[in-house]
Amino acid sequence: MAKPPPRNAPTWRIPIGILALVGALLVYGGLVARFVAPWIAPWPVLAQLPVYVLLGVIWLLPLRRYLIWMETGRWG
Predict the structure, then answer these.
(1) pTM over 0.85
(2) Among positive and negative, which fits the CA dihedral 35, 41, 47, 49?
(3) Cα–Cα distance measured from residue 17 to residue 67, given in angstroms and rounded to the nearest whole number
(4) Where are the alpha helices (DSSP H) in 13-44?
(5) CB-based contacts of 51: which residues, under 8 Å, 6+ apart?
(6) Which of 9, 41, 54, 67 lies in the 20 to 30 Å Cα band around 33?
(7) What is the pLDDT along the chain (76 residues), one digit of tens a residue?
């Protein structure tokens, strides 16, 4: 796959993309705090740890394609 040429001018996708990413992370964190935390609160701390690690990594899965979109305007 050919590398896209470097940008010469700023694009609206980067600041809007960062704001959308921060907003999405706030919503995701709120959902985890609202629905998951009360469910696993009675568990021992060492049992909670893998759940929070997994939930902390899940949001990274779509991030690569999203960052490509922010930079190039294409999803892949």
Answers:
(1) no
(2) positive
(3) 8
(4) 13-31, 37-40
(5) 36, 40, 43
(6) 67
(7) 677 677 777 789 999 999 999 999 999 999 999 999 999 999 999 999 999 999 999 989 889 899 888 888 888 7
